[in-house]
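Limitations

Structures in this collection are predictions, not experimental determinations, and the ligand pose is part of the prediction. Treat each record accordingly. The example that follows, with guanosine-5'-monophosphate as the small molecule, is included so readers can see exactly what is and is not provided: the inputs are given verbatim, and the output is the predicted complex.
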Amino acid sequence: VVCASQDFDYFYFVQQWPGSYCDTKRSCCYPKSGKPAEDFSIHGLWPQYNDGSYPSNCDYHASFDPSAISDLKSRMEREWPTLACPSGDGDKFWSHEWEKHGTCSASYLDQHGYFEAALNLKERANLLKALQNAGIEPDGRFYSLESIKEAIREGTGYTPGIECNVDKSGESQIFQVFMCADTSASKFIDCPSLLRRRCSSKIKFPQFLRGSEDLMS
Ligand code: 5GP
Ligand code: 5GP
Ligand code: 5GP
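Predicted complex:
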């Protein structure tokens, strides 16, 4: 019997703001390759169903193979850094993303194609530039959720979903940005559905502090 990999309807392409991952109670650890740039970075490329649910862990035999993406490694370290503790080289995060989400897209993309597609989407959606063009800077100030969505729509052509988390003082801040892509992850599409994820109407855009400041804060 051949096990067909599960099909899906579209991808969520999810980017994270490192400042908002790191300024929470849980804090963060920089990857072994060094402190990431002050920029959005990739969290994942997640297959979705139109009804809002999603498949996961679709193939226990297709384990992560770092050698299959060795040519992408420097781009991965730059655009897809791991911020969880303890510090890692990225393989654990990438392996988790591939095994939980990537294996569910195998009818369209192999492992190399999956990671390369995510990197290429990141290149085509410069979120920080879109926000800065609208005067929205990572300066620790509060901006309206609507102005953030509008700036990203203006800069990329697509309305994103925004997910918030809370900093150490309990203030709502921009944590992740959701965009949608077609099943081959070759182009963005309008999102079939976006949940409002824990944001208040005005949210903080924190800085991404340098290591020494992090330790003291
Ligand atoms: P959290 O509970 O932090 O929102 O999400 C934990 C994990 O659940 C995420 O890292 C991701 O793997 C998965 N997840 C959360 N929301 C979604 C979603 O809308 N679509 C998919 N495919 N995965 C999700
Ligand atoms: P998810 O299941 O939500 O797609 O993936 C989140 C998992 O990846 C968690 O187990 C988390 O500990 C791990 N992880 C490692 N580095 C990062 C990171 O930089 N950001 C996020 N969100 N999760 C990370
Ligand atoms: P996971 O089970 O996926 O490791 O982590 C669950 C949740 O905790 C995810 O939302 C992930 O982003 C968060 N998380 C895991 N490890 C860390 C960490 O070291 N620092 C922070 N700030 N969040 C973490």
